[in-house]
């Protein structure tokens, strides 16, 4: 049950890995004078930043470590509050919690991303940042988010872990806020099994994030540094093998997204004019990843009947992407005076109870996307899926 990038693992990835193996250098650092050292991680960082249109790129061991490095890079301190949507992967919350930050949840709208209309009344004297999550490959309403951030002098960390390659009004996600974090997990648009990336245009933020990911070391070097360090850090480094796969996948990212959009458009056309449901709102219809086709029904009863008939489930049942299903996170937030119990976010609860995902590129039952098609599906398979969906609706 992988994402689209993993379906397209092939000769390019295998050749890239073999080049690194034959070089004898698997660690991200090596001698600049050694012709066998390929500095693949550093190349990935530069090429991904260029792809996004950002000044700085950082490769990490996971999407979660990308979020942690980004939060530290922004200078957030223990006790600071950060506004996060009530529908996102658990790491959006836990990365904050492990740094002593307080995630403050807010409602989503029918784009399944942060509802701009619910942000301002969540802001307190302790609020320092907003974390818009480009959920399921769909960009947030970044014009509204950035306007609110500017009005209240708040930092913005874009959680792009499910949206590598997506854009909003011509700008890649991750480049509109102060910093952007991505995942290369097996379920994502492009994949190296695990791994992550960070982009920013702020040199100081980049230096601190880099230090966090590598024991306080400074960036902009290929060799191991021995000397003074300006921040405390941990080890979230990527290795050369992971970077080799990620680089090969990066070369395919636009082709992957184009293929997904074509297949989803075909499926939606075959399904026809919505009756009793609507397709998810896209904040930029030409910019999302098209990894999923989200259906929002008029009633919960219809959503339950259709999803059950297809062997799927509604999104409120989709595990650690729904705040109310994260009992360990809810228990922690209750301890710090935030009673985020089930029912605390009625708009989010309502939307998720009426929604189901049809897989297009991400085939993941944990996302409620265990049924549908994948990036390699033929026209015949897409037609069959459309017929099954129409039949279930009837």
Question: Can you tag this structure with a few keywords?
Answer:
12 strands, Aspartate Aminotransferase, domain 2, single chain, alpha/beta, 36% helix, Aspartate Aminotransferase, domain 1, 394 residues, 2 domains, globular, 7-stranded mixed β-sheet
Describe it for me?
This protein has 394 residues and is of the alpha/beta class. The protein folds into two domains: 4-250, 3-Layer(aba) Sandwich (Aspartate Aminotransferase, domain 2), CATH 3.40.640.10; 254-393, Aspartate Aminotransferase, domain 1 (Alpha-Beta Complex). The chain is built from 13 helices and twelve strands. The chain has helices at residues 4-7, 11-23, 40-52, 63-73, 91-98, 142-152, 203-213, 240-250, 253-271, 300-309, 327-335, 346-353, 379-393; strands at 56-60, 81-85, 102-106, 127-130, 155-159, 167-168, 171-172, 179-183, 196-200, 277-279, 292-297, 355-359. It has a seven-stranded mixed beta sheet with strand order 1-9-8-5-4-2-3, with helices on both faces. A three-stranded antiparallel beta sheet has the order 10-11-12. Strands 6-7 form a two-stranded antiparallel ribbon. Helix 5 (91-98) links the parallel strand 2 and strand 3 (102-106). The longest helix is centred in the middle third of the chain and has 19 residues, at 253-271.
Helix content: 25-40%
CATH superfamily (homologous) name of the largest domain: Type I PLP-dependent aspartate aminotransferase-like (Major domain)
Strand content: 5-15%
Count of distinct strands: 12
Uncertain spans: none
H/E element sequence: HHHEHEHEEHEEEEEHHHEEHHHEH
Major sheet: 7 strands, mixed
Q: In angstroms, what is the radius of gyration? A: 21 Å
Number of helical elements: 13
Write down the CATH topology of the largest domain. Aspartate Aminotransferase, domain 2
What is the CATH architecture descriptor of the largest domain? 3-Layer(aba) Sandwich
Shape: globular
Cα distance, first to last residue? 28 Å
- Average pLDDT across residues? 95
CATH class of the largest domain: Alpha Beta
Structural class: alpha/beta
Q: How many discrete domains?
A: 2
């Amino acid at each position: 049950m992988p994402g689209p990038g993993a379906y397209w693992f092939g000769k390019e990835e295998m050749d890239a890995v073999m080049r690194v193996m034959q070089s004898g250098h698997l660690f991200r650092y090596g001698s600049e004078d050694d012709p066998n050292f390929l500095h693949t991680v550093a190349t990935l960082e530069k090429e991904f930043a260029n792809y996004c249109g950002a000044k700085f790129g950082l490769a990490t061991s996971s999407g979660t470590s990308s979020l942690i490095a980004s939060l530290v890079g922004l200078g957030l301190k223990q006790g600071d509050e950060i506004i996060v949507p009530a529908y996102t992967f658990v790491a959006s919350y836990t990365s904050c919690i492990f740094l002593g930050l307080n995630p403050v949840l807010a409602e989503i709208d029918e784009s399944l991303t942060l509802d701009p209309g619910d942000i301002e009344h969540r802001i307190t004297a302790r609020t320092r940042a907003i974390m818009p999550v480009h959920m399921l490959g769909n960009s947030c309403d970044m014009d509204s988010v950035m306007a609110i951030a500017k009005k209240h002098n708040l930092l913005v960390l874009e959680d792009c872990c499910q949206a590598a390659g997506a854009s909003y009004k011509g700008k890649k996600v991750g480049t509109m806020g102060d910093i952007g974090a991505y995942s290369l997990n097996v379920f994502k648009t492009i994949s190296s099994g695990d791994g992550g990336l960070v982009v920013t245009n702020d040199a100081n933020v980049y230096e601190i994030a880099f230090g966090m990911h590598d024991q306080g070391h400074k960036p902009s070097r290929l060799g191991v540094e021995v000397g003074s360090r300006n921040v405390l850090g941990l080890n979230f480094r990527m290795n050369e093998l992971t970077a080799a796969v990620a680089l090969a996948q990066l070369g395919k990212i636009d082709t992957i997204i184009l293929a997904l959009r074509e297949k989803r458009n075909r499926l939606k056309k075959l399904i026809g004019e919505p009756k009793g449901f609507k397709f998810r709102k896209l904040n930029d219809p030409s910019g999302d990843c098209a990894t999923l086709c989200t259906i929002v029904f008029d009633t919960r009863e219809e959503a339950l009947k259709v999803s059950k008939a297809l062997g799927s489930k509604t999104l409120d049942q989709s595990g650690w992407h729904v705040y109310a299903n994260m009992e360990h996170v809810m228990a922690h937030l209750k301890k710090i005076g935030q009673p985020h119990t089930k029912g605390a976010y009625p708009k989010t609860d309502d939307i998720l109870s009426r929604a189901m995902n049809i897989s297009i590129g991400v085939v993941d039952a944990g996302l409620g996307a265990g049924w549908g098609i994948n990036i390699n599906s033929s026209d015949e398979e897409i037609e069959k899926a459309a017929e099954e969906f129409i039949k279930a609706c009837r």
